[in-house]
Each structure stands twice: as structure tokens, then as C-alpha cells.
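User: Hi! I'm working on a homework problem where we have to compare a predicted structure to a textbook description. Could you give me the structure for the chain below?
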Amino acid sequence: AFGVRVRGMMLSGARFRKSARPIHGIFLNNREAFSKKEDSIVIDDCKIAEFSGHGIYLLRIWLFIIRHSHCYGNGGSGVQIYGWDGFVTDNQLSGNGGHGFGCETCGATVMFTANRVEWNRGYGLYLCGGDAWNVTGNSFDRNWGAGLCALGMSATTVTGNLFRRCGKDSHQLAEGERSCHVRLENCNGLTLCANVFRAGRDDGGKGIFTPQIGMIIKGMSYSVVSSNALSRGYMDQMIIDQGEHGPDFILKDNVGCPAK
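Assistant: Happy to help. Predicted C-alpha cells:
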């Protein structure tokens, strides 16, 4: 199915919520190989909720657009992809059991713009082994893990985003008790600049204040982490630099203070 447009639909997976197997809201199942031409899928103005699997699962996707949609309360991620060439704009990805938006194996060449990514039990945005991402103008709020976790990424820019109250409960994730807003590891050609960070707790003044750490960084090369503002942006430490960096890594001119 090429060039499919799914528009203005409410997909409720409530009857499958407790299913032992993952049932997804929208599923592109290129199980064996990528298509020989662009899939060109557009998902627009949809609400996809309470499936036992992912809200949207695009397996070996080649060219997609997801916009103006709400994926919430799914057992897996709000959106999960393996593939590339995407536009993800003006969505709300909230309260999912996995990541707000997650990549498996590789996700590449994606414009991720003006999304609200909040209260997900994994990471807000999980990137691994890909390149050519533009992450701009998003709100990452009260995710259990980091708002952004980027592992082995290259040619990626992260600019003008809000990271708020992330690290709600990171015990089951790689950070363990050292909750954080951003985790970067083994990336090259990545910039993280001009973002703002704020610690906090649950709505109504409940829960614990998080995160403990603003950013956890390791093994970076040809990259820049600079000019970020972390006023009341963390509880204990602004940045943990775990070292093992390659050539030309700049980490400077980040400012902030702990929340009290």
C-alpha cells in the first residue's frame, strides 16, 4: 500500500489493552525488507489510544508524515519506527508505556518539530544508530526517562526545545537512579544548543522533584553542547561528563542552578 493517507480517525484499542501480544493502532509491516519505492504514508489529525502495542508502528518505513495527531495510553511507544525520511509535526505523544517516539535499530533523516512529548514511561525521544535529525521547538515534559536519549547518532541538531520535569522514574532505564533530562552517548556531528531545562514534580505539587542530573554525556566527537540554560533545571548536578570523548568535542557556556 503506497501513498496511503489516514485522516481524521479515532482508533480506540481499549478492548486490546490487556492483550498478551502487542496489537498496534496503525502498523506498516515490511517484515522482510524495505519497499522498492517510497511508502509515502501520511497520518493526519488522528487519535490513537490504548492499544497493547505501539500507537503507530512503521517497520522499515521509507518516507512518512505524522502530524496533528494524539497517541496516548498505548502499551508500547506512541510512535515506533525503523526507517527514514519523515516529518513529525504538531503531535501530542503522551502517557505511553514505552517511549513517546522511539527508533529501533535505526531511524534517520527526520524533521521532529513542535511536538508535546510527555508522561511516557520510557524516553521522550529515543534515537539510536541513525543520522540527519532536526529536533526543534518541542516540549519534553515529565517522561519517566530522559526527554532525549541519543545513542550512536550523527549529523543531528537539537535546538530550541523545552526539557521539563523529566526523569520521573528512571530505575528501569540505563540511567538508573541518576535521572536526567538529556542522555548523549557515542554521537558525532551532534549539536545541542539553545535549549531550556527546568526541574519539577507531578501536577498538583505531588511526587518527587526530578531530574537529579541535567545532562549525562559520554563518548562524543566533532560535537557541540553549548549555550543551554538550566536555571532551576536539576536537583544535584548540572552535567555529568563521563569522558571517553573523541576529537573536537566542545562542552562549554552552559549555565544553570539547582532547584530548591
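For your comparison, note the following. The chain has a mean pLDDT of 97. Residues 24 and 53 are 5 Å apart (CA to CA). Good luck with the assignment!
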